[in-house]
Amino acid sequence: MKCCGRKRTSYPSYPPFSLIKRNEPEEKPYNNEYLSEGLSDLIDINAEPAVENVQKQIMSQAKIFEAIKEASKEIFRQKNKQKMLENEQQQQLEQRENN
Q1: Looking at the domain assignment, is residue 8 inside a domain?
Q2: Is residue 86 part of a domain?
Q3: Which of 6, 13, 38, 80, by CA, is between 20 and 30 Å from 66?
Q4: Looking at the record's lineage, which domain of life comes first (predicted)?
């Protein structure tokens, strides 16, 4: 019987569970000092002009998207209102013709 591809090995491709590190202390424990240092780094990053510019662009795009959604809703409402008026006028014409 011919097979394609590589030969299968008898061992799994992942390390055995005994080799996986378990319950060992992490390199940097999550203490308040470590967290506050990370938060201050994030605050420093947010103060960068490039980050501020990107944030402004994102907010502008979000506002534009909201405006487009509202405009689309209003167009839909106007079209429905127009159709209703046309239907009413058509019904009035039909009633006049029938009388």
Answers
A1: no
A2: yes
A3: 80
A4: Eukaryota
DSSP 3-state assignment of 53?
helix
> What pLDDT does 37 receive?
72
SS3 content of the chain, % helix, strand, coil (to 5): 70, 0, 30
Distance CA 74, CA 70 (A): 6
Range of the domain at 92: 51-98
What mean pLDDT comes out for the span 74-78?
A: 96
What's the length of the chain?
Answer: 99
> How many structural domains are present in the chain?
1
Instruction: Give the pLDDT band (50/70/90) at residue 87.
Output: very high
Write out the two tokens for 7. Answer: 């030969």
Q: What is the C-alpha separation between 81 and 42, in angstroms, rounded?
A: 51
Asked whether 28 and 34 are in contact (CB, 8 A), the reply is: yes
Instruction: Tell me the pTM.
Output: 0.45
Mean pLDDT of 37-53: 74
